């Protein structure tokens, strides 16, 4: 029977999503303490997992309390995926295939949502993994724009041997600032067409959202990622005091160590409303450079000392002007764990358009640029600054164009992009595309395409099926 396995693990309804650098053992155990009934490991690269013992040892960490557990792999080779599955068969209750990752690294590696058009390959992967192990193979997918194709896709995976589906109600184009609202309408249609256990993913910010999703889609369980990151007690139906849940997490990290970058990321999420306040800039900086548990505990203690009097009612707290100026009118005080709500694609588009008008100063863009005009990360900028401070450093980037030609913008000294459609450097090309609603394949700038997608999803998705709560 399709549901025998699902029954055997307790018919879990409250599921913590697989999140790279965020679904480590300590975090899973914290979520289990507060209502989660099923957890996933982070996504593991099957090729690296099968070849690198150190990678396996550092990443595949579990314990007796960490069940039921699903291990997730990505990849595109049926034999390697099957071999990876065989290695963890005895440490988990099922093995999941990541068919939902929409990031650029997944496109380069040919895995995640970028396999959703290769149905014959997916059939082989599911079949090979199912034959290699005695536990179920599951799949986490994203929808297609078409409901009909989404249903057909799900049925194909079910017929190939998939024993449980997790359907994220967004397309692979809906990510970052274009994330938008997930379509529960698509999820409901897939639920009605399939006969295996199914989880829904998308729009889960509170326990009320969980029950609303279960009621509307009729799925067996609900998965949350961002919602759980900002409130690990989401499934318990409470909004805990941030420093209390952080202290509990740090105690688990002490027992089950993980990289400091994971801990830092979790604390930033749980303290995210606290750190919107300028009065906490020092604590935010300490957290950004923290290197050990003692540093993390100092940040937690500092936040607690500052806001405990407010929490106990000894001092009356009012919304800080800084919060109101940023557009937050908090229903809960900032020291309470609460949802992070993304701006809509429409709001993002409007913001980007304003950035290219006089309404915003150039400084407001907060971008960091290489000599070529390309936007780069803060981490890379810091590295470049360190290199520039070295004795004997010489600037070799002034004329680093492949052909020595300069951007056609008369006020720009930067070298032009070799494949730019408009004979501009990346910075000028980006400005032109934002201002004139264009694309540039050479620089991989897709302003027009993404704006059209945002409008399309805004018009097509029936927003009456879901309400996001603060």
From TrEMBL:
Record's catalysed reaction(s): 5,6-dihydrouridine(16) in tRNA + NADP(+) = uridine(16) in tRNA + NADPH + H(+); 5,6-dihydrouridine(16) in tRNA + NAD(+) = uridine(16) in tRNA + NADH + H(+); 5,6-dihydrouridine(17) in tRNA + NADP(+) = uridine(17) in tRNA + NADPH + H(+); 5,6-dihydrouridine(17) in tRNA + NAD(+) = uridine(17) in tRNA + NADH + H(+)
Limits of the DUS-like FMN-binding domain: 16-264
Keywords for the protein's UniProt record, in alphabetical order: Flavoprotein, FMN, NAD, NADP, Oxidoreductase, tRNA processing
One Pfam assignment: Dus
UniProt cross-references to SUPFAM superfamilies, sorted A to Z: FMN-linked oxidoreductases
EC number(s) on file: 1.3.1.88
Required cofactor(s): FMN
Broad EC category: oxidoreductase
Keyword Disulfide bond recorded: no
Keyword hit for NAD: yes
Lineage top rank: taxon: Eukaryota
GO molecular function: flavin adenine dinucleotide binding; tRNA dihydrouridine synthase activity
InterPro entries tied to this protein: Aldolase_TIM, DUS-like_FMN-bd, tRNA_hU_synthase_CS
Signal peptide: none
Similarity comment: family membership: Belongs to the Dus family. Dus1 subfamily.
Protein name: tRNA-dihydrouridine(16/17) synthase [NAD(P)(+)]
Organism: Trichoplusia ni (Cabbage looper)
Name of the gene: LOC113506029
